[in-house]
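User: Quick sanity check before I run a bigger batch. Here is a single chain. Can you write out its predicted 3D structure?
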Amino acid sequence: MKVRPCEADRQRFGLPEWCELDFRNVTVGEMTELANRFGFDQNDWPEVLQGQLTLEQAGNPDAVPKPPTWRNLLVAWLLLHQNGVDASWEDAGDVHMFLLEYDLPAPEPAVGKGQPRDRLSPQNGTGSTTRRSRSSTATSRKK
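Assistant: Done. Predicted structure follows.
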């Protein structure tokens, strides 16, 4: 996905207008650092970022998992590292999280059982459809 940091963060860290962030493109060293720092099993990556349901939400089909409290710090650190900035955790903590803009891939249509996939669909990684978010995830959740 592409992420656009605010102007202040672009200047401070020397970032381009649009940065790449790929949760699959994590090195062994980065994964070890993240798992040790935040106490998760590396085999749970990247689902660990989605969070878990609280006990009160159990059984509610409309429940939304509560993300881990450290998720924003992890995302900011990974964003900086994947874009060539050898940032400390303190640096990552100074990223303006709610001023980030995201250029997300379009949602993939559900493919029914026995229904063939289109060879040029984004599901196969050969197509490229994106939708642009106008604001941070905080605003996106309100929609």
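Helices lie at 7-13, 28-38, 71-82, 89-93, 137-142.

User: Great, the batch can go ahead then.
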